[in-house]
Amino acid sequence: MRRLAIGLATLMVSIGSVAFGDYAADLEAQATHGGAVSGTDWGDAPGYGQAGFDEDTRVFLGSRWTHDTPGPGWIDDSDDGVSWSSSISPGSSFSLTVDINKVASWASDVRLNVWVDWDQDGVWSDSERAARLYHPPLNMGHNVFNLTANVPASALMGNTWMRAIVVYPDILDFHDDPISPYSSGWYSIWGEVEDYDVSVIPEPSTLAMLIGLGGLGLLGYLHRRRT
What we know:
Distance between the termini: 107 Å
Helix content: 10-25%
C-alpha cells in the first residue's frame, strides 16, 4: 500500500509538472510575440483533406499564425512561412526557404514536412514529400532553413498545391514517416499548416525548344502562303 501511495504521489507530481510547464510556456509565448491567437489554423487547399492546429504558443511558420474560418472558396493569403526562388519543372530541383518561428524556449522536438501534389489527384502521398526537417536546432524567434526539393520527371504540368506542416511536440513521430500528411481530418494543438498554389512549368530549355519549333512552323506556313 505504501509503495502504491508513493507511486500515485509521483504520478500526481509529474502531471502537475507538465501542467505547470504548459502554463509557463504559454506565458513565455505571450511575452515573446504578444499573446496567443484564439481559434484554429486550418489548411485551405480546395478539395483536399483538412489539417488544423489550435494554438500558436510553441512554434509556427513565418511571421504570424492565423485564425482561419474555412468556407466555400476560402483561401488564406497570409501564409508566409515558405517561399521558393526558382521555377518548378519536371525532372529538376528547386530551392525552398522555410521560416520556423519558435516562441517557447523548450519547443525543441519539432518536425517539418512539405508535400507537393505532383500527380494533381487531390491527395498528398508519402512519395510526394518534397522536403523535411526532423528535430532541427532552433533558436528563439525566426529560424530560416534553405532546402532543396526534387521534382519527379512524372510531375504533371499546371497548377497544383503544396502543403507545409510544422508540429510540436513530435510525440506521434509523423507515424514513423510513411504517411499521408494528416490530410484527412487530422488535428493537433501546437503547430501550423500552410497551403500554397504552385505552378509546374516546362524546363527553360524545353520551353525554348518548343518556342523555336513553333517559330519554324510559322515560317514554313508563311513560306507556303507566299508560294
